[in-house]
Amino acid sequence: MTTIRFAAMPTADARALWNGGRDAYDNLPETMISDGDGNPCRHCLQNIEEGEEMLVFAYRPFPELQPYAETGPIFLHKQPCARYAADEILPPVLTTSRDFIVRGYGENNRIIYGTGAVTAIADIPAYAETLLARPEIAYVHVRSARNNCFQCRIDKIRTPALTKTDALT
């Protein structure tokens, strides 16, 4: 069985925006006030509380432009927050809806056709493990089932291969 890790937006990406950087469309992020419902921060993977300032911007969680590099609106606390670290546990943002789209991508950052499925929250870890057990799938995205917004990434946890000495102890 494959072991998985939930990964938030990289801190370098969040830090660039907190420091006045531009989004995927070369625009400055917009500052808005959270209404407290459905405004998940993609860095700490928690909901942004009602009344808190947040940044809204276009995000492309892919290393380069290409036809499958989906870009969409996401939220970030306006003030720096700690990156989600309990990577083996279902993140709090994935409890804000009843289901999400879970989809596999290859090493070339392209969608692996046939992998996308609207998935109930409780089934996300098992479905991600099933996808990541396939050799052609490098990572998985979890996206909003209603708006297709990026929520987080799921990666394989690679365990080192046992050596002959390890097997004997």
List the helices and strands and how they pair.
Elements: E1 4-7, H1 11-18, E2 30-33, E3 53-59, E4 72-77, E5 99-105, E6 117-120, H2 124-132, E7 139-144, E8 150-156, H3 164-168
Salient structural properties:
three-stranded antiparallel beta sheet, globular, 27% strand, 169 residues, 3 helices, five-stranded antiparallel beta sheet, alpha+beta
Write down how many β-strands occur, each being a DSSP E stretch of 2 or more residues: 8
What class, by secondary structure content?
A: alpha+beta
Number of domains: 1
Computed Rg: 17 Å
Count of helical stretches? 3
Q: Unreliable segments (pLDDT under 50, ≥5 consecutive)? A: none
The biggest beta sheet reads: 5 strands, antiparallel
User: Biggest sheet, strands in spatial order?
Assistant: 1-8-7-5-6
Q: Specify the helix fraction band.
A: 10-25%
The chain-level mean pLDDT equals 92
Shape: globular
How far is the N terminus from the C terminus?
Answer: 23 Å
Percentage beta strand: 25-35%
Order of helices and strands: EHEEEEEHEEH
Report what the structure shows.
There is one protein chain. By secondary structure, the protein is α+β, with helices and mostly antiparallel strands. It has one domain. It has three helices and eight strands; from the N terminus they run βαβββββαββα. It has helices at about 10-20, 125-130, 165-169; strands spanning about 5, 30-35, 55-60, 70-75, 100-105, 115-120, 140-145, 150-155. The strands form two sheets. The protein has a five-stranded antiparallel sheet. It has a three-stranded antiparallel sheet with strand order 2-3-4, with no helix packed on it. A hairpin with a 5-residue loop joins β7 and β8. The two termini are about 25 Å apart. The model has no long low-confidence stretch (mean pLDDT about 90). It comes from Rhizobium binae. InterPro entries: DUF1203. This is DUF1203 domain-containing protein.
